[in-house]
Amino acid sequence: MKIIRSIAEMQAFSEEARMQGKKISFVPTMGFLHEGHLHLIRQARTMGDVLIVSIFVNPIQFGPSEDFKQYPRDWDRDAHLCESGGADVIFAPIVEEMYPEGFQTMVNVPHLSQNLCGISRPTHFQGVATVVAKLFNCTKPHVALFGEKDFQQLAVIKRMVLDLNVDINIISVPTVREAEGLAMSSRNTYLSAEERRSALSLSKALFKVRELFQNGERNARVLIDTTREIITREEGAAIDYIKICDTATLQDVDTITRPAVMALAVKIGNARLIDNVVLKE
Known about the structure:
Layout: E1 2-4, H1 7-19, E2 24-29, H2 35-45, E3 50-55, H3 75-85, E4 89-91, H4 95-98, H5 110-114, H6 117-120, H7 124-139, E5 143-147, H8 151-163, E6 169-173, H9 193-214, H10 220-231, E7 237-246, E8 260-268, E9 271-279
Parallel strand pairs: 1-4, 2-3, 2-5, 3-4, 5-6
Antiparallel strand pairs: 7-8, 8-9
Helix pairs in contact: 7-8, 9-10
């Protein structure tokens, strides 16, 4: 497995692979890998001849008061997991090369970025779209894989690829959960044992909503109130949002008549956790 830190070296590597007729698959990460990442990496391994995993904690997607400096990092463990998952290359650029002095170009997908996490994190998805566009240009993949836990991020990236005619196939991969139902996240490491038990209320609520939907409930307010009631039973759970949105537009819906996503964000201790479930016939 190669470790590449230079953008020019990464581009040259990928260009050579393409010239040899090899298909490149790509998994972008911010490191501190968990089983959800490994699931993406293992799937990506089957989809290409060359597998690139990026590890880059992207500063421009964090707000001024967010956890960029505290975001968990463990390079040695990440490198071992990438290699065990079959990665051929880890691309780990430095911040100063990704965003050199004078950097000013941003990628913005405004309508899909406004709702859900975009309400409390207004610059987040601009930072995500910008770094993903840059990583695509650095690694030159044919296919890139993203988890469905970050549903809004996935929607933004798909829209960016469509709008900018980016010749990359975006593959979405279902959320990987821990045995008790908690969606896997690097930020789960912030949780104490007691907070982890409280965090299980998120998936418990979503699974209950899915059951109600399957039994015929289509009123968004009823489903949102059910979710809120389950989560607020837990002491210390601070709800950022609970919403039901159209899966295509991410606009709120009152009655579910076409595929929708219930998405939520909840602060438990120092961890801001997100999760979702898609509601469709």
